[in-house]
Amino acid sequence: MAKNLFIKTYGCQMNVYDSDRMAHSLAAHGYRLVDAAEDADLVVLNTCHIREKAAEKVYSELGRLRRLREARRARDGRELTLAVAGCVAQAEGELLVERAPFVDLVVGPQAYHRLPELLARRARADGAVVDTEFPVESKFDLLEPDQPAQGVSAFLTIQEGCDKFCTFCVVPYTRGAEQSRPVVDILREADGLVASGARELVLLGQNVNAYHGEGPDGRIWGLARLLRRLAELPGLERLRYTTSHPVDMDADLVRAHGELPQLMPFLHLPVQSGSDAVLAAMNRNYSADDFRRVVDDLRAARPDIALSSDFIVGFPGETDADFAATMALVREIGFAQAFSFKYSPRPGTPASGLRRQIADRVKSDRLRELQELLERQAAEFNAASVGSTMPVLLERPGRHPGQLVGRSPYLQAIHVSAGGLTIGDLVQVRVTACHSHSLAGMVVPEAPEPRELPA
Ligand code: 5AD
Ligand code: SF4
C-alpha cells in the first residue's frame, strides 16, 4: 500500500541532495512525497549539527511531531513513524534516543541506502533502531539508480567527508573521512541529470576542491580535470562547485576558471577569519596573505569573478585586533555575498575545550559590525549590476503571471517577462532594477556573432 513520506531538510546543500536521494530510494518501496508532516506516515528530519542553534531546532521539531502523532492516534489510530537522519543523528546516535525516546529510527548520512531495511527492522522491533556506522560499502553504489533532475539546476555530490579537522568543526566527525566518487559514476549521473532537463550542475562536497577521484584511465583526477570533462557535455550550460577550501585552490583549478566558459565566475571560498593567529588556532593551514594571493590569482584568471565566503566571529582567543584584521580583509577583498556566524562550541571538537572562550555579548557586537559591512558590500554588488547585460538561466515561474525567474552567473535572482520564453532557456538580460532580494531585467537579443569583414 502506498505510504506518505515527508522530509524536512536542515542545513547545507549536501542535505538537500541526500533528501532527494532518500525520497527516490523510498519511492521504490511505495513511499510518495507529500508537502506536510500532517499528511505523512513517515517523517524524516534530515538534520544539521554545524552550530548549536541548528541542532536544537531538531529537538523542538521532534516535540511538535510527537504531539502531532499523539493527537492522530487519539483521533483515528493512524500511526506516524519518526526518523532522524543527517548529522545530528550521526553525532548523537543513542543519545538522541535517550533524549527523545519516542523516535523510531536514527540513521547517519553514510547509511541512507539501508533505510528501507531499517524501516522493516523498526516494524519488527520494540524500541528505536539506530544506525550510525560508517559502513565499508559506499552508499553511492547502493542507493537506487540515479534519479531524474528536479529542475534546471541540479546538485551532484562528487565528494563527501573531510580530513581537514578545523578545530571548530564537527564535519570530520559526522561525515567521516574524505571520499571522492569515481569519475565514471559522476559522469553517468551527470548524463542522466542533463538528459532529464538539468542545464546547470552544482558539484557538491564538504571539501569539494579536494576532489581526487579515480578516472576512467585508472589515474587520480582532480577537480579541474573533472570540470573540463563535464564542460564537454552537450546541453550543459553551467557548472558550479561548493564548498571549497582555500588550501585546495591549486593552479590547475585556478586555470580552469579562466578556460571554461561554463564554469560560473562566482566562487564560495570560506576564509573564516582575517587574523593569522586565529586562522592558526582554527587549523586552517593558510594565512590571510595566502588567501589574498588565491583571490589575486583567481581574479587574474577570470577578471569578472565574484566571491562569497563564510566567517566566524568570537573564536576562542579572538582579540579586538584579530577581529579588526577580519574587517580589514573584508574591506580589501570585497565579497558579493557572505555567511557569518558567532562561534558555537561543538561537542567533541578541539576548540570547544579551549580556555579564553569569548563572551556572547562580544560575539554579538562583532557579528553585527561584520554583517553590516558584508550586507553593504552585497547591496553594492547587486546595485552595480543595474545597467549591465548578463546571461540568465530561467529556472521557475515568477509570482506574477507572465513572469519568469532566473539566475545570473552570480546566483542573483532576476525577474523577467516571459513572452516567448520557457524554463531552461539561457537568455541575455539587461538589468533594469535592483530590489532587496532580487533584480529585474529585460531580455535582449543575443549579442550578434562578429561578422566577417569582406576581403
Ligand atoms: N561555530 C560557528 N560557525 C561554524 N561553522 C562551522 N562550524 C562552526 C562553529 N562551530 C561555519 C563555518 C563554515 C560554515 C559552513 O559554518 O563558517 O564554513
Ligand atoms: Fe569543517 Fe574545516 Fe572540513 Fe570545512 S574544511 S568541513 S570547516 S573541518
Q: Can you describe this structure?
A:
35% of the residues lie in helices and 23% in strands. The protein has 14 helices and 21 strands. It has helices spanning 13-27, 52-76, 86-92, 94-99, 115-124, 139-142, 171-174, 183-195, 223-230, 251-259, 276-281, 288-301, 320-333, 360-385, and strands spanning 3-9, 31-33, 42-47, 81-85, 105-107, 129-131, 153-157, 159-160, 179-180, 200-204, 212-214, 220-222, 238-242, 266-268, 306-313, 337-342, 389-397, 403-407, 413-417, 426-434, 439-444. It has a six-stranded parallel sheet, with helices on both faces. A five-stranded mixed β-barrel has the order 17-18-19-21-20. Strands 7-10-13 form a three-stranded parallel sheet, with helices on both faces. Strand 1, helix 1 (13-27) and strand 2 (31-33) form a beta-alpha-beta unit. The termini are far apart. The mean pLDDT is 92. The structure holds 5'-deoxyadenosine (5AD) and iron/sulfur cluster. 5'-deoxyadenosine binds next to strand 15.
